[in-house]
Design a protein that fits this description.
The chain is of the alpha/beta class. The protein has a single domain, classed as Ribonuclease Z/Hydroxyacylglutathione hydrolase-like (Metallo-beta-lactamase, Chain A, 4-Layer Sandwich), CATH 3.60.15. It is 28% helix and 16% strand. It contains eleven helices and 16 strands. It has helices at residues 5-30, 33-39, 64-74, 93-98, 171-178, 193-199, 270-278, 294-297, 304-313, 336-347, 388-398; strands spanning 47-48, 51-52, 104-109, 112-117, 120-124, 158-160, 186-190, 205-208, 213-216, 219-224, 244-248, 258-261, 283-287, 319-322, 355-356, 363-365. The strands form three sheets. The chain has a seven-stranded mixed β-sheet with strand order 8-7-6-5-4-3-16, with helices on one face. Strands 9-10-11-12-13-14-15 form a seven-stranded mixed β-sheet, covered by helices on one side. Strands 1-2 form a two-stranded antiparallel sheet. Strand 12 (258-261), helix 7 (270-278) and strand 13 form a beta-alpha-beta unit. The N and C termini lie far apart (52 Å). The relative contact order is 0.15. It binds zinc ion (2 copies).
Length: 402
């Protein structure tokens, strides 16, 4: 005898809710991030009458005028040892455009990188202009051209903006991306920048506070704290937020991958919190340039030694040093950060290839970090270091849990 309709509907509803409950439970089991994030101490950004603040309160900095005066009378920064010419790779634009299967990264220059993760194309802080400045005729000039121009890019799905300084958020660049064939990318930005983008005609944007999560192009993405500041003029200091980004393939992905992009930052305990919240990163993009003089640049910019500390704090398996070799913003020579990074990485006993830099335009395959995309078809993957201790450490890093 058939069951009455009411009973059948009740059983169907119970079956649906049981399925939903088991999906939710298994998703939580697979991804402990929400619980760890809640316990990590990461919270929304502090806000005062003067604007957003860092976790450790307002930045305490020396005199801007003293810095500029010293820079002028001492002729700083000194030019790079070999002049303003760095080794350049010409990216394989065809391979990059076709790539939907390999996790890869291409360094465009400064903090601009193309990340290809799980078939999704992501740009960090895209700046293609000739100056990091409000005007085209003055301000810090670009010393190395962008390794990819907007028309050479594959269709970009997601743009991550760390903060509104001119070397990270460039009007012409975001407008070019907004007009890309096939429709605009999603712009993920810190609090306060959505309206700024809307004023430039860019509406496909979402703004996040520290600790907030969203999903874009099928990836889970969080905005996380950094120690820095913001301004595009004398009148808007700290009115918009700053921070870093975490990008993860969703729980249950066949090839889980997690990336941390630190933005611009001084050193603080935030990185230990980020490490506690996310457990492990396959790749971290960490700034290594913009640090001299320390008495002035120290609070908002890490030096290479502190960049290595961030690498340790966030539990990265591999890191690439960015924010160097492109715009001459501070007093160290443009070629110094990689040298100081190599010294700091050696002093910390990191494996040889754990925290390195790329050539402008270099593409690396992220699942085989020592191999470039252009080497892919003609050479086997480069061997890892013969140093046993280093190899052991690399193996340990490879085993970290998510
Ligand atoms: Zn900045
Ligand atoms: Zn910067």
């Amino acid at each position: 005898m058939p069951l009455p309709l009411r009973v059948r509907l009740l059983l169907a509803a119970l079956a649906i809710s049981a399925t939903a409950a088991s999906c939710g439970a298994s998703a939580q089991q697979n991804d402990p991030t929400p619980e760890r994030l809640a316990a990590s101490g990461i919270h929304h950004a502090p806000r005062a009458d003067s604007g957003f603040e860092n976790d450790d309160g307002p930045l305490v900095r020396g005199s801007f005028l003293k810095w500029r005066w010293n820079r002028l009378i001492h002729g700083l920064p000194p030019p790079p040892a070999n002049g303003y010419a760095f080794p350049v790779d010409h990216p394989d634009v065809g391979w990059i455009s076709a790539n939907r299967s390999e996790n890869a990264m291409t360094w465009i220059g400064h903090a601009s990188t193309l990340l290809q993760i799980g078939g999704v194309n992501i740009l960090t802080d895209p700046v293609f202009s000739g100056r990091a400045s409000p005007v085209a005729f003055a301000g810090p000039k670009r010393r190395m051209p962008p390794a990819l121009t907007p028309d050479q890019l594959p269709h970009i799905d997601v743009v991550l903006i760390s903060h509104n300084h001119y070397d990270h958020l460039d009007t012409a660049s975001v407008q070019a991306l907004n007009a890309q064939p096939g429709g605009p990318p999603v712009f993920l930005v810190p609090l306060g920048i959505k309206d700024w983008l809307a004023n430039k005609g860019i509406t496909n944007a979402q703004e996040l506070d520290w600790g907030d999560q969203t999903r874009a192009a099928g990836l889970d993405i969080w905005f996380v704290p950094a120690t820095h500041w913001s301004a595009r003029s004398l009148a808007d200091r700290n009115e918009t937020l700053w921070g870093g980004w975490v990008v993860k393939t969703p729980a249950g992905a066949r090839h889980p991958y997690a990336v941390y992009f630190a933005g611009d930052t001084g050193y603080s305990d935030d990185f230990k919190r980020i490490g506690a919240a996310f457990g492990c990163f396959d790749l971290a993009l960490i700034p290594i340039g913009g640090y001299e003089p320390r008495w002035f640049m120290g609070p908002p910019h890490v030096d290479p030694q502190q960049a290595v500390q961030i690498f340790e704090d966030v539990h990265a398996k591999k890191a690439i040093g960015i924010h160097w070799g492109t715009f001459e913003l501070t007093d160290e020579p443009l070629d110094e950060p990689p040298q100081k990074l190599a010294e700091a990485a050696r002093a910390a006993n990191l494996p040889d290839d754990a925290f390195t830099v790329l050539r402008h335009g270099q593409t690396i395959l992220l699942d085989a970090p020592a191999q470039t995309a252009s080497d892919k078809s003609s050479h086997p993957p480069a061997k890892t270091s013969g140093n046993t201790a280093a190899a052991k450490m690399a193996a340990t890093r490879g085993a970290c849990t998510r």
